[in-house]
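Appendix B, record 7
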Amino acid sequence: MTPELWSIILLSLKVSGVAVLLTMPVAFGLAWLLARGRFPGKVLLDALVHLPLVLPPVVTGWLLLIAFGNNGPVGRWLTDWFGVTLMFRWTGAALAAAVMALPLMVRAMRLSIEAVDPKLEGAARTLGASPLRTFFSITLPLATPGLLAGAVLGFARSIGEFGATITFVSNIPGETRTIPIAIYGALQIPGNDAEVTKLAIIAVLLSLGALLISEILARRSGLGRGSHVL
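Structure tokens (predicted):
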């Protein structure tokens, strides 16, 4: 384990952690809308949320480049008003990972919310609890294992993100070179099998650990085996 490898691992953990933290509120809001909402266009919203699952990741990265690039509408606004640049920065890698992880997080959270028995919420309301108190005392505690499962699943997806990231923020050592990008770069160098093997093993261990934790949390939430993944 060289200092360079440690740098790659720490950067990957930072990118994935920030991606999950940024995505959690958005994913929960979308999951709540899809689980409990009744409104026109719900099917379209559901399709848009899950679109990154079926789009080629390179296309997702290209769309991010158009929107959040230096000349894109959102990217120019962020630069002019806040001095924030996402292109070729680790923050851009976190954004790409967040977009790719969002569908899986929404799926797990939606199932956890739908698994909460409405009769329990109704009973709390008949006893005089306000909607807000019912949510924090009944709905949220029962759904929390599923929410955490979604967060861990999103973390695992972020660790393995490659296509959208390299398209949007390129491969810059110490800035955007996460584990998958480092593996891709190492594969281009003949005789670099040792480094590829180390990075691949690390990626497998991190992803497997996250998936196991997600499965345990999903079982506790009563979602059933494997139903939170796809």
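Remarks on this record: Residues 7 and 174 are 7 Å apart (CA to CA). The longest helix spans residues 3-36.
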